[in-house]
Design brief:
391 residues, alpha/beta, Rossmann fold, 2 domains, two-stranded antiparallel ribbon, 23 helices, 57% helix, globular
Length: 391
């Protein structure tokens, strides 16, 4: 049976240059031994970005083939935290799930050929045995051993970093909001301790919809817990980056992949160049909006409408999927930010400078050379205009 070349194209990994500016920033921070706080609005491509960044070929491109194998990058998905109940939770303690996930994913990465092949044989055997033993201890029948997750994690890190001064470890916490809601402040205090012990060699990267400081302020921590969280969050001071919209090359790659996925549903084999260009424009390069807009623009919207930016916007805002995406984006904003957007809709002066700056950082609005305020995502602007009373 002959494989469909279009389906094969869809399954191919994203090219290393996809979202190049953001991926490069991640590795610039890691190479410098610094932390990285990535912030982006809902469906802005945060998870896709870090899943791309951890690929071996991508890491080698940005760090170089000689240095890359010595940098262990561990992606942590909060939806894979083990949820314990009843007696099991009492046995393991409240921090166990976080350490178990970190050890499990670190263990997988260390066993990858990329890292194994550069270790001296005797040290490799010792490290592999130690990693297995420490991970098994997470499931020990004795509570005090099972609950010593931070010590097991620290010992694995020590075994690796003592092998050669070139080794580095970077943990990427995707959807950091979920980690804060699932694990208490003492867990993050212990991660601060790991960093203090291995400064410049153990790094953390986070993705979230809001800055870490804002996430912390919105959680019902008591004074003690807040102080512990502040100790962790201050590691990221000065290292915040707002994820950019797709650049033109990445946006066109996203469209090519959507064409491959939905080819059988499309009226034509590919989008006309004018329609593809219009989609990138009206979505502002926002990953979620581009994805949601693609199918109606290529199947149900008349070609003459899709060829006109304004007509395309009017048609797309009526589409349920696009409307849901716009609603999700608005839901990820603060009330102060929404109030600024409403003033922008009415062409009124912007009075809340802090909220305006936050919206600019999130690439939702901007200001031209003449001081005129404008929306960066025309489709979102049109949806907000139709639903202003509900904002």
């Amino acid at each position: 049976m002959t494989a469909n070349p279009e389906r094969q194209m869809e399954r191919q990994p994203l090219p290393y240059w996809y979202q190049r500016e953001d991926v490069k920033h991640i590795y610039d921070q890691i190479e410098a031994g610094e932390f990285c706080e990535l912030v982006g609005i809902g469906s802005g491509g945060k998870s896709n970005l870090v899943n791309l960044a951890v690929r071996e070929d991508v890491k080698a491109h940005y760090l170089g083939p000689q240095k890359a194998p010595y940098v262990v990058v561990v992606l942590l998905n909060p939806h894979l935290l083990v949820k314990l109940e009843g007696d099991a939770r009492s046995h393991t303690g409240t921090l166990w799930a976080g350490y178990e996930l970190m050890l499990n994913r670190l263990r997988r990465q260390l066993f990858a050929p990329e890292h194994q092949q550069i270790m001296p044989e005797t040290r490799r055997t010792d490290l592999n045995d130690a990693v297995e033993a420490y991970y098994i201890n997470m499931y020990h029948q004795t509570p005090v051993i099972a609950q010593a997750g931070i010590r097991h994690l620290e010992d694995v890190i020590y075994e690796l970093l003592s092998m050669d001064e070139e080794w580095r470890i970077a943990f990427i916490f995707d959807e950091f909001e979920q980690f804060i809601d699932s694990l208490n402040a003492e867990f993050f205090q212990s991660l601060r301790g790991l960093r203090d012990a291995y400064k410049g060699r153990v790094m953390y990267v986070t993705t979230s919809r809001e800055p870490l400081k804002t996430l912390m302020e919105r959680r019902p921590f008591d004074d003690h817990q807040r102080a512990l969280m502040e100790g962790f969050v201050e590691l990221f001071g000065g290292h915040r980056r707002y994820i950019r919209p797709l650049d033109e090359q990445s946006a066109n790659e996203a469209i090519r992949r959507l064409e491959s996925r939905f080819r059988q549903q499309m009226k034509q084999g590919r989008l006309r160049p004018s329609v593809a260009s219009n989609l990138i424009y009206v979505s502002g390069g926002h990953v979620g909006l581009l994805r949601r807009s693609f199918l109606p623009a290529s199947t149900t919207i008349a070609p003459r409408i899709a060829d006109d930016k304004l007509e395309l916007i009017r048609a797309l805002v009526q589409h349920p999927g696009v409307a849901d995406e716009c609603q999700a984006m608005i839901n990820s904003l603060s009330q102060r930010e929404i109030a600024v957007l409403k003033r922008l809709l009415r062409d009124r002066p912007i009075e809340d400078d802090e909220a305006w700056i936050s919206l600019r950082h999130k690439h939702l609005v901007d200001e031209d050379r003449n001081g005129r305020h404008y929306w960066q995502i025309p489709l979102l602007a049109a949806w907000c205009a139709e639903h202003e009373a509900e904002l």
